[in-house]
């Protein structure tokens, strides 16, 4: 495994975003309280820097398919999953917060089952976070997720799926998912591309057949 660079690489297909600096934690919390959860945009906050981005539909589609693939895997394995989408992950003691494209509780599902609110650090962070294709960020997402203690991170960008594992407070790129070691990671981008011609549910069915054949 190789340690990932802490510098985000420029993205080709940029999402609309705005970055505000010098934003206090109290101001950030007041903004989040005023706008509520019924909004299309997502945030990342890192010690005074607030980034607001608007996900594009072409970036949402891969995320939705990745959610379906993960649901197929847990269904075939007969294990529980709590899928919480763009859950707001906050640590006031660290003055950091982020909303992933989607996230999952798997190993720790029973610890947060049925809870109306997740409170870090009293509750564990999601076991798996997914970030779809996004622009060059003014906030280092790897460092942010590492500080929040997320053990596994998937990043889909430029038709590639990259998997990272948190080891000693930094992410290392790996060829296998720590949670689902048997998962054919290298085949997933091809299935996402096929969905453009064959349809989303068709490739989900293909994926299910592939998993059953492992």
How many H/I helical runs? Answer: 6
Give the structural class. alpha+beta
Shape: globular
Strand segment count: 12
The portion of residues forming beta strands comes to 15-25%
What is the C-alpha radius of gyration, as a whole number of Å? 17 Å
Query: Which sheet architecture does the biggest sheet show?
Result: 7 strands, mixed
- Which stretches are low in confidence, meaning pLDDT under 50 for 5 or more residues running? 4-13
How would you characterize the overall build of this protein?
The protein is an alpha+beta fold and 214 residues long. Helix content is 32%, strand content 24%. The chain has six helices and twelve strands. The protein has helices at residues 25-35, 57-77, 109-112, 141-148, 188-198, 200-212, and strands at 2-3, 17-21, 42-46, 49-53, 82-83, 89-91, 96-98, 102-105, 128-131, 152-157, 160-167, 170-174. The strands form two sheets. Strands 1-12-11-10-9-8-5 form a seven-stranded mixed sheet. The protein has a five-stranded antiparallel sheet with strand order 2-4-3-7-6, covered by helices on one side. Strand 9, helix 4 (141-148) and strand 10 form a beta-alpha-beta unit. Helix 2 (57-77) packs parallel to helix 6 (200-212) and helix 5 runs antiparallel to helix 6. The longest helix has 21 residues, at 57-77. It is globular.
């Amino acid at each position: 495994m190789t340690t990932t660079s802490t510098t985000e690489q420029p993205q080709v297909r940029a999402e609309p975003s705005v970055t505000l600096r010098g934003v206090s934690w109290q101001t950030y919390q007041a903004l989040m309280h005023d706008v509520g959860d019924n909004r299309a945009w997502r945030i990342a906050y890192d010690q005074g820097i607030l980034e607001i981005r608007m996900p594009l539909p072409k970036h949402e589609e891969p995320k939705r398919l990745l959610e379906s693939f993960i649901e197929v895997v847990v269904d075939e394995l007969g294990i529980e999953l709590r899928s919480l989408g763009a859950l707001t992950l906050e640590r006031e003691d660290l003055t950091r917060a982020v909303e992933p494209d989607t996230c999952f509780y798997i190993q720790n599902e029973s610890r947060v089952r049925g809870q109306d609110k997740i409170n870090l650090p009293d509750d564990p962070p999601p076991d798996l976070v997914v970030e779809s294709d996004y622009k060059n960020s003014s906030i280092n997402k790897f460092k942010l997720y590492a500080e929040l203690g997320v053990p596994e991170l998937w990043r889909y960008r430029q038709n590639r799926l990259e998997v990272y594992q948190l080891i000693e407070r930094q992410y290392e790129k790996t060829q296998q998912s720590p949670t689902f070691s048997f998962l054919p990671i290298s085949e997933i981008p091809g299935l996402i591309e096929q969905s453009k011609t064959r349809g989303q549910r068709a490739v989900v069915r293909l994926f299910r057949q592939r998993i059953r054949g492992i």
